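In the current project phase, work has continued on tokenised descriptions of protein folds. One protein thus recorded appears below exactly as we store it.

——
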Amino acid sequence: MKKLLKSLMVAAVAFAITGCGGTGDSKANKPVTMSGSTSMEKMMTAMNEAYYNETNNEATAEYTGSGAGIEAVLAGSVNIGNASRALKDEEKAKGAVENIVAIDGIAIVVDKANGVENLTKEQLAKIYTGEITNWSEVGGENQSIVVIGREAGSGTRGAFEEILKVENNCKYAQEIDSTGAVMAKVASIPGAIGYVSLDVVDDTVKALKIEGVVGNEENIKAGTYALQRPFVMVTKGEISEQDQSVQDYFKFVQSDKGQEIIKSVGLITVD
């Protein structure tokens, strides 16, 4: 009986040491939490799954929009805020650090029956500010243009409006709260136009050329495709100042495996 009690006591002590995180590894195994850009969902889903498979450590992401993600990381409620746009000066002043992990093109999409193939930046800006309202004005059919955009706070919207210099001047027929919903609306509404991340474009819609240039990796890297923006993983302070778990996550993103994932979802790696 004494021998049995002694064995049980040894087992209990061993469980207490390991179960309570008595080793220095517990900090590295903390789940990494993220929130932010819906445009980054495809990349982050693949990245977090591969990270878990490779390290057995968890990383979770919520898709709340870029602005909300940046606010969350600054408030300390998540480790990383995902943003599909560059940081604003006022965000940097609050301690947000811009860690660019990929480059994405913004695709301009229309319904598949639309006969227009190309728009200039000027034409695109005029469509979104309401100066051009019919497809016949840009070489298409006599059909009203239905302007679809993202909600205020969206990184895609912020980048799109900044590139075209139409901030606060757009006249949207509908403002949609996710990339997938924009795709669905454009596909189902005759005469609709919208902007989405290039990596999510599929055969339900048609992507237009901009200034005669196709949106693809080659043209984005060459700088000839006009609509492109960074995918940013925002931290409060430098990466080196974060928990070990966050530092380890960034090391994985920057590893050969992480770079392969970025390419596999149609994004451009940062040299």
Remarks:
- The chain is about 40% helix and 20% strand.
- The two ends are 67 Å apart (CA to CA).
- The domain at 104-228 is CATH 3.40.190.10 (D-Maltodextrin-Binding Protein; domain 2).
- The CA atoms of residues 17 and 23 lie 8 Å apart.
